[in-house]
Prior knowledge:
The chain has a domain of 165 residues: 3-Layer(aba) Sandwich (Rossmann fold). It is 37% helix and 26% strand. It has 10 helices and 10 strands.
Amino acid sequence: xxTETASAPLLDxxxxxxxxxxxxxxxxxxxxxxxxxxxxxxxxxxAGKTTLLCTISGLIRxxxxxxxxxxxxxxxxxxxxxxxxxxxxxPEGRLVFSxxxxxxxxxxxxxxxxxxxxxxxxxxxxxxxxxxxVLRERRRQAAGTLSGGEQQMLSIGRALMARPRLLLLDxxxxxxxxxxxxxxxxxxxxxxxxxxLTVLLVEQNARRALKIADRGYVLETGRVTLEGPSRELLANxxxxxxxxxxxxxx
Length: 250
């Protein structure tokens, strides 16, 4: 953890615009994520959630706006530099290196830590295998033979090997059984509570995401239309109707 206070923004985005050709994918998006928070980003398909995460991690370039991480603008930095600075992205679809073993996938996550010695990497590897015992059991197994839930744990573990301060999680529950998804979300809370990790979470299951988050933002057609504490968003009729599948009578 850094020197920021609990209320200081670790990630501060202002006036972000992103285009795909002539398509205006993100429109003047502004949001912040404070040190030690879980912040959920919800919205329908095509709202721009994945685009936003990819822009933060440098995979997509913004045409306007600022992305400040720990007080420094990183909107024009290369993706590998952003990882080195402490921001790791767990992409939608997990994207593990299927032929490689679980352990080799995890070690690749430490690639950006070139100056760190083998002992430090080995200590982090052991810590992650302790956090995800199923990965320890399968550490010599090819990653492509793991179940979907195990691959998601591997993808998160690989990102943690870079020692991030901010973790960007894109649809960690996608395609997983409800029981497995609940386990993944328990791990996300543990990362925040035990390691002080800050998390920006994109998840299609809005209710599940908001239940573990401190705050949330609603993204619609590339714009932030609503923000607030998660409990307020869960009680909001418009959010209930659009993303929670019902409208509670009061």
